[in-house]
Amino acid sequence: MNTDEKMPDGGVARSPAGLGPAARVLWSLLLAAAAALAGLLIFRGIQERVHAESTLAQRTEQRAVPSVQTIQPKRGALAADLVLPGNMQAFTDAPVYARTNGYLRRWYVDIGARVRAGQLLAEIETPEIDQQLRQSRAELATAQANYKLAKSTAERWQDLRKTDSVAQQETDEKLGDLESKGASMEAAGANVKRLEETQAFQKIYAPFDGVVTARNIDIGDLIDAGGNGPGKELFHLAAVRQMRVYVQVPQMNSRSTAPGTAAELYVPEMPGRGFAGRVARTSDSMDPASRTLKVEVDVDNPQGVLMPGEFVEVHFKLPAPVNSLTLPVNALLFRAEGMSAAAVRDGRVVLLPVTIGHDYGDSLEVVSGLRPDERIVVNPPDSLANGQVVQIVPAGAQP
Question: Does CATH place domain 98-222 in 1.10.287.470?
Fold first, then answer.
């Protein structure tokens, strides 16, 4: 059978059947190589497709796992200095009133004057009291004269009774009259003493060392001691050699501000200058409205630099907590069940309830609920759940 074919140029091409044995073997090898190459290309394409699908599935799975950044809690508190506002008052502060009625004759001190205990502040003119005193002295003199007469009469009747010249009844009457006149004399004497003491209140004296913070009278003013109503305040005195500062301390710090705790006071008008003080006493009871403890800090003021009514900042030197840790504010979760921190253990989230101590603004003191070696999630998402799988990325990397 002739299998030759004519070529377009007139030549003749021979089919494999028309070739010799060596040519047929070579042709078979070429066909096998072509088939193998085609199979290899097909396998390579399938393998790349499977690898791409596996890579896509792996990346999808990785993207489904949240990536987080973590930090470790810092040991110790940032500071042991509690700063609170305080209200400064004089150690002794008292108004001065009159004890007698009259007109102001003269005053000797004005506001800002520093006085000593017993120093004369003002004088009151009391014409009515003076007249009453003269009258009571006259009544006392009359009572004394009547008593002397009753005494001599009683003595004579007692002598007459010894001789039975008078009746016993008459003698007893004279003795009773003597006792009556004696009681009247004592009452008149007590009234004179009362008016003399009232007249002594014409002069107003300072009750203690201090500074005059108010003068509410002037010469000629009518002075009412308050017999028919509240009296008028004449002066107001404040003892400023030592000052009291009242501070409302939050409940969480109340145990650390016991009597004897050191404090430093600062006045805004004198920056950089501190005044040493010490907690003198506390109210030992919490204000139910604000949950604060009223604390009194005493501070010496020998030069009178501090003034009553000033606003001051009180710095308490509190003992630093031993086992406290600090975390930034953005490392905590604020939820309905309370405050917690998200720790990562073995690639899973563990929500740890924590107890907060001091608030330092950008960070918080954690007094319980954390270990120093915990890895805490920074900026935890609200959807973070207990037991959720997460992956940790280095600080600064894009989560």
Answer: yes
